[in-house]
Write the structure tokens for this entry.
Amino acid sequence: MKRRYFLKTIGTGGLAVGITPAWSPRHAASPLNPHSGTSGAKKEPEQASPETILLKDYRPRSLYKIPTTEVPRAKFPIIDMHSHAYAKTPAEIAEWVRNMDEVGIEKTIVLTDATGQDFDDIRRKYAAYRDRFELWCGFDYKGYDQPGFGPQAIQALEKCHQAGARGVGELHDKGKGLVSSTVHALGMHPDDTRMDSLFARCGQLGMPVNIHVADPIWMYEAMDNKNDGLMNAFHWRLDNQPEIVGHSGMIDILERTVKKHSGTTFIACHLANLDYDLKRLGQILERQLNLYADISARYAETAPIPRFASQFYAKYADRLLYGTDMGFDKSMYRVTFRILETFDEHFYETDMFSYHWSLNGFGLPDEILEKLYHTNAEKILSSRGTRALP
Ligand SMILES: [Zn+2]
């Protein structure tokens, strides 16, 4: 689902359980929290019988008397490699910049996924803060099912590039084919030969490509009482779509694409949705040197396994990029810092992530944090050259 649509959905309180990437903005009334809704909403009975409490209503509080850490500001300056055009007005954009200043975000990459006029409109809105926001564009898949697809899409890409797009994303393929806000290119996956000239042009133009393939694994599993991610999975279920390319098949498509276009830099977002199998992601990173992974919107998915996750961060510290994908509230940024920087244990952020499980910090050492927050992103961004923006 497109982020814009998702925000609209959550804004109207129409969301029942899950979301992906798994989070919900704090300012939105969460349907999971009966006390945060609008006045007049039905109140839950104060004392539901323990035998009838539903998992979706379960809001445990940690009972451990252990240290808790607040991280108001990131330890090192950050380049946020995964965000979207959440702020719509000049006032909201100014608020976003103030929040970035306060928590330590130096620059934010806004993945617009837009082309043509849509891209120009967004770019204009953010133009007052050119040093703080970088805008990336999308692909125009119009005519993908017609002979001769390619040259026109490349033209659209070049136009965006001339208008200031410095990268491409977030491309989406959750199994049906590449999807943009305007075109569903059904059956056309990133490794399709129709996509070859576009990805090659990205490499020539020095435009990195942020790409989303598949979704968290539990969305593919049966929606039953054994599904570990059930509370976040049901709304986004994929288990009832047998015709789509499955999770593992999408990861293979990602790898084939990255391998085929070795002159193009790819960023698999959300840890390539391999948060449940970081070993496989590591193997792909070892094989494909033009691939990076952003960690956006997969905090709650990795915080239950802090030791394994921090070993992964240590081993692949040169290939991972900080990202958020979760709005621009200060509290949101601070939760990500708490998970990455501290050794805090067993804390809940249920209203932000919707999972019923508790989270743990990774306590990443400084040299890894610096790479994750800044150095790796800087390397990607500066390798594109220093062409002045129009
Ligand atoms: Zn995103």
User: Anything to note?
Assistant: The longest helix spans residues 366-382. The CA atoms of residues 172 and 212 lie 5 Å apart. The chain is about 35% helix and 10% strand. The first strand starts at residue 78 and ends at 83.
